[in-house]
Write a structure and sequence with these properties.
The protein is built from 13 helices and 13 strands. With 442 residues, it is of the alpha/beta class. Bound molecules: pyridoxal-5'-phosphate (PLP). Pyridoxal-5'-phosphate (PLP) binds next to helix 3. Pyridoxal-5'-phosphate binds next to helix 3.
Length: 442
């Protein structure tokens, strides 16, 4: 007689409480703010977005915030802003969402991937340094899965080699490294504010910088209507306000109106999430083979806990893969656990051989010295290659309802204790990455 629900045993949870996970939390002020934009017909203006930028910059303590229609484009603006261009290389960790780095190709730059640390899933400073060449212009530091990257080491390496630092804060809005907000360390930051993320306002992105030149370049690239504000007339007389990127990155004002309301309650909401996630972790921390991934430094945290993962050691569970373990967990509680993380980008041909624009040769190496082998520059990335089989995604509790969280704790304990039953299951290939990770669809 099986104990596990996967094989007909009694599940821990009869019915899932969707409200425990629902996000974002919508209040009347958010509802009203949306209606106001719609009814005044002010969807395409920038007055509300500029107010949102002002408040967002104040919250982060930076000089400039620039709203974008997507996080992807806020990162492209940041790349153009710091001057990434033809023949440059951008170093990026292989384990992240594609939008962290792919747009570099459209600027004529190449991406060189480096490894992450298994301990915290963040860019490995040593691997970053080992991938620097005379052409390295910038590094993309992703604060991956709500965890801060090791900014002290990264900034020291970057400054030593005169490399620009861009932070991708899509997973960690409001998070801290040693007491300082993420997104405020480098030369520029970009982040997604789309619905699936922790700071969720619909489709949207934000670029941050303290550098006026970075800001002005970003405006020049994809914000045509801001050009007369950021530039003197004689500076754009020859080109008029035609945006250099040929892009329009303006945020929809329903998003910025929601964002203004979200800002007012975000800190309180992520404090509640933090309490809930730590309660969950206290309940399972003694299980051998599972490892909480949390920063050790004073003043560092995982604010928001977006897509948070914990370490899973298949050897401690007789070789049961993380995919099968997650399947068994989900059978107990009706979903919310997952296996793996983003697929390793350094295996995608887009960064080596794909001819995107029809030049008749590979786009990635178009502007590099003849004979440059990008694959060899990236080389072996052992952690990126194995990490997808060594992680489990935990439920993202939005409320600290301890009685309900206890069921999830019980489910983990039950599957861990009875994992021998899972040896009969076909152990799926776990190294493929969780493709749908950041764009979960209902
Ligand atoms: C979601 C995400 C992005 C892209 O943001 P969009 O708003 O979806 O364009 C960029 N980087 C990371 C790490 C992300 O998870």
């Amino acid at each position: 007689m099986s104990k596990l629900a996967l094989y007909g045993g009694t599940p821990v949870l009869k019915a899932k409480d969707e409200k425990l996970f629902h996000w974002p939390i919508v209040n009347d002020a958010m509802r009203q703010a949306q209606l106001d934009v719609l009814e005044t017909g002010n969807m395409s203006g920038t007055d509300i977005s500029r107010k949102f930028e002002e408040e967002f910059a104040k919250w982060n303590g930076v000089k400039y915030a620039l709203t974008h229609n997507t996080g992807t484009n806020s990162l492209l603006s940041a790349m153009y802003g710091v001057g990434l261009g033809p023949g440059d290389e951008l170093i990026c960790p292989s384990i992240t969402y594609w939008a962290s780095c792919t747009a570099a190709l459209s600027l004529g730059a190449a991406v060189v991937f480096c490894d992450i640390c298994e301990k915290d899933l963040q860019i490995d400073p040593e691997s970053f340094e080992a991938h620097i060449t005379p052409r390295t212009k910038a590094v993309m530091v992703v604060h991956y899965m709500a965890h801060p990257a090791d900014m002290d080491k990264i900034m020291a390496i970057a400054r030593k080699h005169n490399i620009k630092v861009i932070e991708d804060v899509s997973h960690a809005q409001g998070g801290h490294y040693k007491g300082k907000l993420l997104g405020t360390f480098g030369d520029a930051a970009g982040m997604s504010l789309m619905s699936g993320k922790s700071f969720a306002i619909g489709e949207g992105g934000m670029m941050l910088t303290n550098d006026e030149e970075v800001y002005r370049r970003a405006v020049r690239f994809g914000h045509y209507d801001r050009i007369p504000v950021a530039f003197a007339k004689e500076e754009f007389a020859a080109t008029n306000i035609v945006p250099f990127g040929g892009q329009k990155f303006r945020m929809h004002q329903i998003s910025s109106a929601i964002g203004l309301e979200q800002l007012k309650k975000y800190d309180a909401e992520i404090a509640e999430i933090d309490k809930a996630m730590k309660y969950f972790w206290n309940g399972i921390s003694d299980i051998e083979g599972l490892r909480m991934i949390y920063p050790e430094d004073q003043g560092s945290d995982k604010s928001g806990w977006y897509a948070s993962r914990f370490g899973y050691d298949p050897e401690a569970f007789s070789g049961v893969t993380n995919h099968v373990f997650a399947k068994a967990l989900n059978a107990e509680v009706g979903g919310e656990f997952s296996a793996g993380c983003n697929f390793a980008l350094h295996h995608s041909e887009v960064f080596y051989s794909t001819d995107i624009y029809g030049h008749g040769k590979a786009t990635a190496s178009l502007n590099l010295p003849a004979g440059t082998d990008l694959r060899a520059l990236t080389g072996e990335l052992p952690v990126a290659d194995r990490i997808n089989s060594r992680l489990l995604g935990e439920p993202w509790f939005k409320h600290c309802d301890t009685a309900k969280i206890d069921c999830y704790i019980e489910a983990v304990r039950k599957v861990a204790e009875n994992h021998q039953e899972l040896l009969a299951e076909a152990q799926e290939d776990s190294n493929i990455g969780n493709i749908a990770l950041t764009h979960r669809r209902k």
